[in-house]
Design goal:
- The structure holds two protein chains of two kinds.
- Chain A is mainly β.
- In chain A, about 0% of the residues lie in helices and about 50% in strands.
- In chain A, the strands form two sheets. In chain A, strands 2, 4, 5, 6, 9, 10 and 11 form a seven-stranded mixed sheet that branches. Chain A has a four-stranded antiparallel sheet with strand order 1-3-8-7, with no helix packed on it.
- By secondary structure, chain B is mainly β.
- The mean pLDDT of chain B is about 90.
- Chain B contains no helices and eleven strands.
- In chain B, a hairpin with a 6-residue loop joins strand 5 and strand 6.
- The interface between A and B is medium-sized, with 20 and 22 residues.
Chain lengths: ~110, ~110
């Protein structure tokens, strides 16, 4: 069955370090998204991509970057981790703009 | 710009009681609306989309364009319904906009 997987599931890092969270989907979806989930804020969009070599900033993109070199993967990089980036991160994909999102299991990131 | 409002952060009911999770939206076009559910420490999963007009796990949601609402309802809550529920709006030309979520707690 097609799926979307995130790794690692949990990550603890120090302030100032670069961190990359992986997202891999086998749906062959062109549209991929990164969200962060925080209490009181719900889900906020970080970055998204509509296809290979396409990336776009979301609502809370500062301090994050993504790259899309193939259809399956959209890694999220925190250039210099900050405590404010402690959160649960969800990757999602969808077939087209009228389709619902499929979510990964999430990555719980703690920045100390 | 589109916006989704879920006015309740927490809704606590007893098993067997009716449940209504509120969702209001603002959008100038024809909206497509979804409800997503997240059980404890699991991924978000689609519960309902308004165009399907389905009943999933006993939940229903009707789009009311006059009141710009898409409330999620269930006549008799079960303990296993305890979860975080997110309402989301899809404008089609852009990304989904999520509400801040409502935590539903169903007590025995």
């Amino acid at each position: 069955d097609a799926e979307i997987t995130q790794s690692p599931r949990h990550k603890i890092t120090e302030t100032g370090r670069q961190v990359t969270l992986a997202c891999h989907q086998t749906w062959n979806h062109n549209n991929m998204f990164w969200y962060r989930q925080d209490l009181g804020h719900g889900l906020r969009l970080i970055h998204y991509s509509y296809g290979v070599q396409d990336t776009n900033k979301g609502e809370v993109s500062d301090g994050y970057s993504v790259s899309r070199s193939n259809t399956e993967d959209l890694p999220l990089t925190l250039e210099s981790a900050a405590s404010s980036q402690t959160s649960v991160y969800f990757c999602a994909s969808r077939e087209d703009r009228n389709s619902p999102l499929h979510f990964g299991n999430g990555t719980r990131l703690t920045v100390t | 710009a589109q916006r989704v409002t879920q006015p309740e952060k927490l809704l606590s009911v007893f098993k067997g009681a009716p449940v209504e999770l509120k969702c209001n939206y603002s959008y100038s076009g024809s909206p497509e609306l979804f409800w997503y559910v997240q059980y404890s420490r699991q991924r978000l999963q689609l519960l309902l989309r308004h165009i399907s007009r389905e009943s999933i796990k006993g939940f229903t949601a009707d789009l009311n364009k006059g009141e710009t609402s898409f409330h999620l309802k269930k006549p008799f809550a079960q303990e296993e319904d305890s979860a975080m529920y997110y309402c989301a709006l899809n404008p089609g030309y852009s990304t989904l906009t999520f509400g801040k979520g409502t935590m539903l707690l169903v007590s025995p």
